[in-house]
Design a protein that fits this description.
This protein has helices at about 1-25, 30-40, 55-65, 70-95, 110-135, 145, 150-170. By secondary structure, it is mainly α. The protein has one domain (about 1-170). The radius of gyration is 22 Å and the shape is elongated.
Length: about 170
């Protein structure tokens, strides 16, 4: 087979290993997939999650379908927590609009009870997102997540949700 044949076989094996590692996410493939998802949903510092409930559901599904590892997995986990927080906040807003403040109904399944449950769920996701974000290092292309602006925004959401839960406790 000779030296040239051996060299060709080695190069083919290396190319195959590189392709397999890339497809499995070991060479940053998931990062590119995360960035692609972000581009399609126009995610940035100004818009952390999709705006509509259907886009939000699709976004969550796509992120959950990634085979991310390492730092990529940590970024995906933060993004999922923020998306799930937003989904719960949408439910909170929808249920809150239906509360009759003059005669609040606080029974199980009422708008007030559902609103409080959604607010508590959103709060849980917000706190989890913040805790996971604080563990991240600066990652190229995701500075909007690793920045103090992100921390401040999520902390403001936490404060607002805690105030809303206290108000719901006072109503019921």
């Amino acid at each position: 087979m000779g030296k040239f044949g051996t060299l060709v076989i080695i190069l083919i094996a290396l190319a195959g290993a590189y392709f397999a590692a890339s497809q499995l996410g070991y060479l940053g493939g998931s990062f590119e997939k995360v960035k692609d998802i972000d581009r399609r949903y126009e995610i940035s510092a100004a818009r952390l999650v999709p705006a509509t409930p259907s886009e939000l559901d699709n976004y969550i599904q796509e992120l959950e379908g990634l085979n991310a590892i390492g730092n990529e997995k940590e970024i995906v986990e933060v993004k999922l927590e923020v998306a799930k927080m937003q989904k719960a906040m949408l439910s909170f807003a929808q249920n809150s609009r239906r509360i009759d403040l003059s005669e609040p109904n606080c029974s199980v399944g009422s708008s007030a009870a559902l609103s409080k449950t959604s607010a508590q769920e959103a709060l849980s996701h917000a706190k989890s997102a913040l805790a996971k974000q604080k563990a991240l290092k600066e990652i190229e292309g995701f500075s909007y997540i690793t920045s103090t602006d992100f921390e401040n925004t999520i902390q403001q959401v936490i404060d607002s949700l805690e105030a809303s839960i206290r108000a719901l406790d006072e109503i019921c």
